[in-house]
Amino acid sequence: MPTATRLRPTLAHVAGETPTSFVSRLAQLHLSCEPSARYFCADMGLSFGDLVKGRPETLATLADLSGADPAKLASEAFRRVGEGHVFKGEPFPGQSLLRTALRFCPACLLDDCSKSSRPETVAHGRAIWSIASIRTCPDHGMGFVEIERPTCPSKAHDFAHLLKPLLPDLEDLAERAPRRPASGLETYALDRLAGRIGLSPWLDGLPLHVGMAICEAIGMVDRFGREVRANTLTQAEWVDAGESGFGIASLGVAGIQAFMDELIRTYPYSRSATEGPQAVLGRWFKFLAFGAPHKDIDVVRDLVVDFMIQRMPFGPGETILGRPVERRVLHSVRSASLEMQVHPKRLRKVLHAAGVLSTAQMELPYGNATFDAAAAAPTLADAVDGFFMTEVEPYIGAGRVQTKLLVDAGIIEPMFPKRPDLDHLFRRRDLDVFLDRLFADAVPVDEADSDMADIQKAVKRVCCSTIEIVRLVLDRKLAWVGRRTGERGFAALLVRVSEIRSLMRGSMEGWLTARTIETTMRTTTKVVRNLMECGYLKAEVIVSPLNRCPVTVVSQTSFEEFRSEYATLFEEMETTGIHFREIKKRLTALGLEPSIEREVVGAAFYRRSDLRRI
Prior knowledge:
Strand content: 5-15%
Structural class: alpha+beta
Shape: rod-shaped
Radius of gyration: 51 Å
Largest sheet: 4 strands, mixed
Number of helices: 32
Strand order of the largest sheet: 14-16-17-15
Low-confidence stretches: none
């Protein structure tokens, strides 16, 4: 129950009215000369400054003095806490309030004054008029009128005293005030202050002043571009910004991320694409970096930092909005090139060949071609440790010719064998694997004996190829492999010549050389060569299993087929004992001529079927 009032007469405190407005109206009621709220409070033993600060004991005294409901009076007070205020349980830092300016809805004041002969005692200031982001009266669809703050600090907050000279002009002010509906942000703020929450869960989790500030900052950029200047916006434009920003922020983290994604996508990057978040996000980033020092906004800063780490190539050692980056999520070709000390042109080719970059990304500037840093780590390591062909030779300890032989044979493969523009690039780890396999069972050798030789010398002594010996080593087909101490790489490998020769030498079984045929047929080299050239003896060129050199041979089967069909007169003479002249005389008598004429191959050959007729 309220205590009996000491004031006679008094005024009723109106819902939504600030305590400073209420005491200002009481001053207008009781003081005829210089009706100042400060003078009135001094007469009543109150501190007007404490009322401005919302001190509970001063508010209770005012309620007791005026007969107002103490709880309702206190609920409309901006209570000073630290560097800011608390209103309806919500913290409001100084920059979120406009308490010293005369700000009001003319239509609301006209309604107040419509039934009173003393309008200065009934026109009261609403608490919501002091909240900077609320610029529209929700009841009348009218923009607030704002009068410059008084030059005398003592008159600040004395609402009725400051309004009194303007009362005759209220109708004109109402006529000229802009008409517009309350924005989504303003409606949300009013609902929030009235305790109605739940439609925007993410914003509900933030202090109201943070929600209003970020909505306006986001909307300002969304509506007017990255480089918009806040001090150039009109009140109507601020309302538009709040409407746009609330539509984005009310969707929560996903909405803000989509907003920033669009800023990244549409930014007109330079050819180098080295622009950072301040350029890409514009005033939104600058607001978080320089315009919003209050710690309550840290949760939004953290959101933006996490987003930038996920969407832009930041890594350890860098900071975003004062937060150090602890791990890298994205790399760009440019950032990876700088970090790895690899030329960006070469790096981009390697990343594309490995499937890390798409074909479309190959057309982007180095700074815009981004990729997952963790997934690309092995490829980046390969690019850093990669060798050009000329670097492979000293690394594996082989000469240019031997290295090319190993590559051509597929024993050492390029990093990307199907990419002609990268077939000169090799992985260090592939070369290490090759060397490890080569020397897996090698015995250290200080002094090589006469049977030991490196690959190059063994090739010459056995008349085989480098690749054949290397494959014997890699396939573990040699009983002994050595490694010369004091040497490294391919040049240090030792094999036993005798073992290589025994494995390389084979048999000529089933094959006849021209010399063998010549001896067997007791004819000349010329005749054998002519028989081969004319196709009577089917010749082939093979690698000799004896000396590893190309040799022309005739298969045993082909030679036997020829001899079973053809013979010379001398061969027939040895078989029958008849002199070759007599054989020829008889053949002539029968009208039988040589099937292979002397003029063609250098000797006459008859079919054995014809010779049997004599």
